[in-house]
Amino acid sequence: MPKVNLSHFEAAILFALFASIVMAITSKRTDKERLSYGLYLFGCFVATLIGLAWVMKLGHG
């Protein structure tokens, strides 16, 4: 089996994608609601990821 070598950012985006999918599927009833909620969650995950990255960069110097 080939080894997958992901950066920390790529792994975080992949986690955000899968977490958004699972949370949307388990919490909404219709496909339209699932799609819109999944996209919303993915956007929130990515925005939080970028925001925390900036906070860590500014705090570290």
Write the layout of secondary structure elements.
Elements: H1 8-27, H2 31-60
Helix pairs in contact: 1-2
- The SS-based structural class is mainly alpha
Q: How many strands in all?
A: 0
Task: Please trace the helix and strand order, writing H or E for each element.
Answer: HH
The low-pLDDT segments are none
Largest sheet: none
Q: Give the overall shape, derived from the CA principal axes.
A: flat
What oligomerization state is this entry in? single chain
What is the CA-atom radius of gyration, in angstroms?
Answer: 15 Å
Task: Summarize this structure as a short list of keywords or feature phrases.
single chain; 61 residues; mainly alpha; flat
Brief description of this entry?
It is built from 2 helices and no strands. The protein is mostly helical.
Would you give an account of this structure?
This protein is an all-alpha fold and 61 residues long. The chain has a domain at 29-61. Helix content is 82%, strand content 0%. The chain has 2 helices and no strands. It is flat, with a radius of gyration of 15 Å.
